[in-house]
Amino acid sequence: MKTARELGLMPESRLSVGPDNAITDVPGVAVGHRSLRSEGIFTGVTAVVPHPGDLFGVKPRAAVEVINGFGKSAGLMQVAELGTIETPILLTNTFGVAACTEALIRRAIAENPAIGRKTSTVNPLVCECNDGSINDIQALAVTPDDAMAALDAARPGPVEQGAVGAGSGMTAFGFKAGIGTASRILRIAERDFTLGTLVLANFGAAGDLVLPDGRRPDPRVPADPEHGSIIVIMATDLPLDSRQLQRVARRGGAGLARLGAFWGHGSGDVVLCFTTADPVAHEPKSPIVTQGRLSDDFIDIAFRAAAETTQEAVLNALCAASATPGRNGRIYPALADWLKESTNP
């Protein structure tokens, strides 16, 4: 399927786009999917791996911004408290959180046998959206093996988007949606940095979507109350402290607002932002650690990148997904089809 830009939608982009326009444009970041397809099952797992090394031993700095907290994720509380992540990030459906949590714990213990015995326990990081409108969520189809498969599939480079991995059964604004990604290059003091965003888009009431050209697509489905969710994962190689990371994460909300979202009562809207710069050692060599930090005088460019990439990642998730039947007989249409019909009535 095509991206938003390939379909003629041009999100605001005052910054240069990365080579693959993906979260994986941040050096070291990898993404993998595991898609599950069988009778009544249309779900999966998506893995975001911040760097190829030992994440428990070398922890990326991170922060969480909970825009609306209607969600059942795992691990966010410790990230908010300590400002680091120590496992890959897994995305899945609401009832797949436990299976993904087990997989992350087992993977971490295999790599660090001292976990839970000679050193601290590990904080598995799993985020979710409810895909029950398409997938039989009560089947508990996601297993730890599926989560392991997504981790094993993680690669740098182009990212498959749309109804893939965790995005398989997700919808947004009455259309089929799923996984989307985008990136921007940040030029600061004659150096290039990157900020990339990946979304699991499952939010927005039908009829509320606003395209970059101002059009409001009609998916011709009932305008149900806004009770979906979105998980936004941001990665950068900018040296940012935990306070700055949360401030950048907060600007993801600006990108969602550009799309027409208002974060309804039943919506779980969470942004997780991490940096690959100056990670934190599990066993530091010195009690005093020096870390780089961007001057706040230059942070607006990161705020802009956060808003731009979040908006475009959601549009890519919508544009890359094909029309799909729901469990109640409703067909969730493809935005790409609407765009084609609106151009050639």
UniProtKB/TrEMBL annotation:
Keyword Hydrolase: yes
Entry EC number(s): 3.4.11.19
Highest taxon of source: Bacteria
Molecular-function GO term, any one: aminopeptidase activity
UniProt keyword annotations, A-Z: Aminopeptidase, Hydrolase, Protease
The protein's enzyme class: hydrolase
InterPro entries tied to this protein: ArgJ-like_dom_sf, Peptidase_S58_DmpA
Similarity comment text for this entry: Belongs to the peptidase S58 family.
Designated name of the protein: D-aminopeptidase
Organism (species): Mycoplana azooxidifex
